[in-house]
Amino acid sequence: MEKNHATRAARIDEKHFHGEAPRPEVTPIYQSSVYRFNDTRDVLEYYENRPDGRYLYGRNGHPNSAVLEDTIAVLENASGAVTTASGMGAISAAILSVCSAGDHVLLSQDIYGGTLVLLRTVLARFGVSLSLLDLTNEEALTRALDRKTKLVIGESIANPLLTILDIAKTAEICHRFGALLMIDNTFATPALIKPLSFCADIVVHSTTKYMGGHSDVSGGVVCANDPLIEQIRQTSVAVGTAQTPFDAWLVARGVKTLSLRVEKQCENATKLAAYLASLSCCEVIHPSLATHSGHDLAKQQFHNQFGAMLSIRVTDDLEIVDEIMHRLPSIPFAPSLAGVTTTLSHPYTTSHRGFTEEERRVFGITKGLIRISVGIEDITDLMTEFAFALAILQRRDP
Fold first, then answer.
1. What is the catalytic activity of this protein (predicted)?
2. What is the C-alpha to C-alpha distance for residues 43 and 50, in angstroms, rounded to an integer?
3. Is residue 398's pLDDT more than 70?
4. How do the domains of the chain map onto residue ranges?
5. CB 310 within 8 A of CB 270
6. Tens digit of pLDDT for each residue in 225-275?
7. CB 170 within 8 A of CB 135
8. Which of 51, 171, 367, 377 could covalently link to 316 via disulfide, CB atoms 3.0 to 4.6 Å apart?
9. What is the CATH number of domain 258-396?
């Protein structure tokens, strides 16, 4: 019997299942929120055995997330990975998977502000306590660890002061006290370092940044080994942190050029840092500089690459900061990072607003701190633009 046009329109997909199509060169976008089963026995088989290549509901995973998870797990030398809708989704899923009421978390004092806000304003209400400290101070870390400390959170390259953490040494101290070490590897990426290979327990990324690489997608990922990664996956499904198929597809596309982009961005950042330091008009913070406290460690851990983020510190006057930004019309103030174009951010008024005024003062998050995410542009153009912008500082010198 011929079906009504409305029925035919609704069922148009039936003869175009991906299994009947030739293998595409590029993974398709599986833009579906749910997947089909033949009958109750089929769905019970899914729940009991979870066979590869079978999916249930978008929140539980889909082919695009599976492709991305497998790829990033390989890059990070992990047993598995779990993708999320944002970097904070990844951090939340990881912390919720290992911490319970009464547990204590140690947090690097120059951590990304969103991580601090999560622990201080949300998880504190559920009985998780928090301490901030300098994780590079081994004696302070040893004193701060106790039997209630479940998790220590640091960054391979800290945001925004670019402190370099000795991951292997930090992991050894944490494990001595039974604590897990989680590393946010967003700034370094696995192109520079794979923290699990240095005995970290969990690695997180905001894939919005270098993994995606083009400022057009939000995402996050958690990497760990078995059985911890499955515990994190269960938490992610339960709280609903799943990434959409299209967003996972965009990040997977970005990952294909990760090493090429990061190599060029690191090269540009190293050259720009040296040039800005030669102007002697402001403090320049970048691990490639011999004046940086983590210079030698960065050479060792990152194989002579130093990351593509740098910061400069000028007078603590927002009017001067704004004037510098206005003199860089082609380099926008955009409070994110790691796209292919160079951008500026101002941690004091954006990422680190969640710190108290005293914490920002003590930790060095000053009004005059400007963070620069270096892109892939021609380095001579970047040098010329920044020289013009920073000339106002030289004019103000007595």
1. L-homocysteine + H2O = 2-oxobutanoate + hydrogen sulfide + NH4(+) + H(+); L-methionine + H2O = methanethiol + 2-oxobutanoate + NH4(+)
2. 10
3. no
4. 40-255, 258-396
5. no
6. 999 999 999 999 999 999 999 999 999 999 999 999 999 999 999 999 999
7. yes
8. 367
9. 3.90.1150.10
Residues 198, 163, 103: CA angle, nearest 5 degrees: 65
Question: Looking up tokens 């046009």, which residue turns up?
Answer: 5
Amino acid at 66: A
Q: What pLDDT score does 54 carry? A: 79
- For residue 139, give the amino acid letter: E
Just give the CATH number of 40-255. Answer: 3.40.640.10
Q: Are 273 and 286 in contact (CB under 8 A)?
A: yes
Residue 269: DSSP 8-state? H
Burial class (CB in 10 A: 0-12, 13-18, 19+), 253: middle
Question: In Å, how far are 225, 244, 265, 331 from 80, measured between CA atoms?
Answer: 6, 19, 28, 37
* Helix ranges restricted to H, the chain: 5-10, 40-49, 63-75, 87-98, 113-117, 138-144, 167-176, 228-239, 245-255, 258-279, 295-301, 318-326, 357-363, 379-396
pLDDT at 127: 97
- Condensed to tens digits (0 to 9), the pLDDT of residues 174-218 reads 999 999 999 999 999 999 999 999 999 999 999 999 999 999 999
Q: What percent of the chain has pLDDT over 90?
A: 83
294-330: string of b/e by CB count within 10 Å (b at 16+)? bbebbeebbeebbbbbbbbbbeeeeebbeebbeebee
pTM higher than 0.85: yes
Amino acid identity at 314: V
Q: Which of 90, 339, 44 is nearest to 215 (CA)?
A: 339
- Residues facing residue 154 across a β-bridge: 183
Which residue, 98, 269, 231, is CA-closest to 174?
98
Amino acid type, 88: M
Strand partners, 204: 184, 222
Residue with tokens 């033949």, as numbered in its chain:
38
Question: Could you give the residue numbers annotated as active site?
Answer: 59, 112, 184, 209
312: pLDDT strictly greater than 80? yes
3-class secondary-structure state, position 385: helix
Closest CA to 108 of 336, 296, 352, 350: 352
